[in-house]
Amino acid sequence: MRAFALLFTIAVLACGGKAVPVGMEASPDAALSAFMQAVADSNLNRMAQLWGAEKGSAAQTGQPQDYQRRVAVMYAYLRGGSVRVLGEVERQGARSVLATEFSRDNCVKRVPFTMVRTGQGGWLLYAVDITMVGVPGTPCPSEQRRPPG
To answer: In the chain, what's the furthest Cα-to-Cα distance?
Structure first.
């Protein structure tokens, strides 16, 4: 056990000295991927662990006070969808804006996702304009349709 602790410490120091906390992701892309996997798994608790601000996840900080309701709304809008990251379009301080293609039911929309680096070193989803993904169950405008296949 002692040898494992020593190896872990050496590995952390070799990687820049700061380990990413358990449950957080090491990059904006990885955090968004993990968040969307939580959506696909209908895991609202995991979504709350992957959404938050510089101080930490909503699940950890309990902020905002209505975070469980907000996570449920994000789930309702994002479920059944997938995200393909096109690239980082902006980075300011602890925030990174990722340009993405959000796809659901052969409908493809460009949607920015704002990610935030926490004080602990991991990345979380900070913001997404859910109105840009479209209302679930409504027809997709023809100009945003992708042919099947």
So the answer is: 62
pLDDT in tens, the chain (149 residues): 444 333 333 333 334 444 545 567 889 999 999 999 999 999 999 999 999 999 999 999 999 999 999 999 999 999 999 999 999 999 999 999 999 999 998 899 999 999 999 998 999 999 999 999 998 888 887 766 666 55
Whether 51 contacts 35, CB under 8 Å = yes
Q: How many domains does the chain have?
A: 1
d(CA 18, CA 122): 10
Nearest residue to 120 via CA among 97, 98, 94: 94
Cα separation, 88 vs 145, in Å, equals 24
CB 107 within 8 A of CB 80: no
The domain of 34 spans 24-133
pTM (predicted TM-score):
0.81
Alpha carbons 137 and 135: distance in angstroms, whole number:
6
CATH of the domain at 69: 3.10.450.50
